[in-house]
Amino acid sequence: MEPARETGYLHRPVGELVAEDYTRAAVFAEAGIDFCCGGGRTVAQACEAKGISPDRVVDALEARDASSAEASGPDVRTWSLGQLVDHIETEHHGYLRRTLPVLGTWTDKIARVHGGRHPELVEVRALVAELASELDRHMEDEEEKVFPLVTALEAPADDGAGCLPVPEALVEALEDDHDHAGSLMRRIRDLTDGFSPPPDACATYTASFVLLREFEADLHRHVHLENNVLFPRARSLNARRSGPPSDKEDGHAFH
């Protein structure tokens, strides 16, 4: 592969670029680059891992930015941690709770009706059920164990709640959940040929694949906000509030 030309994009993390402007997500998605769980890799590293030309990706990013008269949405980097958490719970957790039962019902139906001719639908049904179970537990862990501590980091310094550490092990577990959900969705995408229904698909079959595509896009946005915006901000704020660790600290808080 030819060495890539030097550019301001090449050595910057993929997740950081998307955090600046979410319309760039379309460029990475088109190139098959994971900007959510793999957001810590630079553009150069991500392209090398995929075996694709960095110049092609950089050209697409430059073209996207040049035409960014398109609305890129609100700059979530300016939001407080509380605003980010409220948005994630309302928009993304709410979406999951509304959508997962529908996906479960529809994928069960098409597996029963069409599974004989399309046996991959049986695995899709099982994967959707696994996703639903995992994400239900994941949201509960976030809302009950982690998000309250994260938002408390913005409390005044003399407020005891604002000094509670956020256990790093819990956050790493959430990030592992994101990786697992991403791997399940990639398997579903592969099994469904990129959510492309076959010619004999009925209305429910087609609607299921449309909803799976929409679900994947929302999950990418959701994971991106947590992995590349919320958690790094919380880690940074916690480190400033905590100061250097004492001999008594066990190293399990954000650092």
Describe this structure in words.
There is one protein chain. The chain has 255 residues and is mostly helical. Helices cover 65% and strands 0% of the residues. It has eight helices and no strands. Helix 1 crosses helix 8 and helix 7 runs antiparallel to helix 8. The longest helix has 40 residues. The N terminus and C terminus are likely disordered.
In short:
Helix content is 65%, strand content 0%. By secondary structure, the chain is mainly alpha-helical.
What order do the helices and strands follow? Answer: HHHHHHHH
What percent strand?
under 5%
Q: Which oligomeric state applies? A: single chain
Global structural class: mainly alpha
What summary fits the major beta sheet?
Answer: none
Number of helices, where a helix is a run of at least 4 consecutive DSSP H or I residues:
8
Number of strands: 0
| First-last Cα distance | 38 Å
| Helix share bin | 55-70%
pLDDT under 50 segments (min length 5)? 1-6, 246-255
Q: What is the overall silhouette? A: globular
Question: Would you tell me the overall average pLDDT?
Answer: 84
* Rg, Å, rounded: 20 Å
